[in-house]
């Protein structure tokens, strides 16, 4: 994909930089800009990557400009970036809730834009990254960007109208899932298993379940049926979950998170 410049190397920007370095990208093909002096120094020192102080200089040196600042900084930074972009360059924004048309109007000129929505697990290169491309971006460029960022996890292309849905299903769901995991650990404790062992069992249950689904390429419902014997233990537990409309609660949680993502979009 050529050279990549990252604007803002906070939590997300640093994770992206780290993953790109672990993949095939060379140090010389990466540069960054960062407002916090100490953070910039430490990134330069830790990864041996060039810091570029002027945004226009970063844009000039990059084929792909990744904007990883907070959404509230968008209006300050986008005009600067846009003024030094040309048709050969693509702006990749990871700013939550800032749409492609927001970026275009804040930039004040036509630009090639790709929106990405990474979730927290990109920190361990097991994230989900929703990708929506502006109409000016060629299919082959989108494919190259998807391949480049696959070092962060699973890259999924969606229409931009689904980015809020992806923010909720991909971005917020880890929290919902963690609540379920915490409840499992507490349940283990309630039925007499020491907390550390309950945690180890619960985590392995999840890892093993996902590994089997992937290896055997089966639907979750089919795997669930495999362990639900007539009159057995599993069906008793499942009935308790269904009594409280477990699926309905999960669906509602994800739907509400999606509504909130829509409200928070500019
Ligand atoms: N964290 C997540 O899990 C997550 C998930 C999905 C999407 N995102 C999106 O990712 C973006 C970054 O989030 P984050 O959590 O990484 O934020 P962050 O830790 O605050 O990082 C942003 C960095 O950019 C710096 N910055 C601000 N203006 C700048 C400028 N003009 N030039 C260079 N650097 C500048 C900030 O410095 P100052 O603090 O001094 O301004 C800060 O160090 C956000 O837009 C967020 O919506 C985050």
Label the CATH architecture of the largest domain: 3-Layer(aba) Sandwich
* Ligands, ions, cofactors: NADP nicotinamide-adenine-dinucleotide phosphate
Q: What is the CATH first-level class name of the largest domain?
A: Alpha Beta
Largest sheet: 8 strands, mixed
Q: Number of helical segments?
A: 11
Structural class: alpha/beta
Order of strands in the sheet with most strands: 3-2-1-4-5-6-7-8
Uncertain residue ranges: none
Report the span from N to C terminus: 30 Å
Radius of gyration: 22 Å
Q: What shape does the CA trace take?
A: elongated
Comma- or semicolon-separated keywords:
alpha/beta, Rossmann fold, ProC C-terminal domain-like fold, 2 domains, 8-stranded mixed beta sheet, 8 strands, elongated
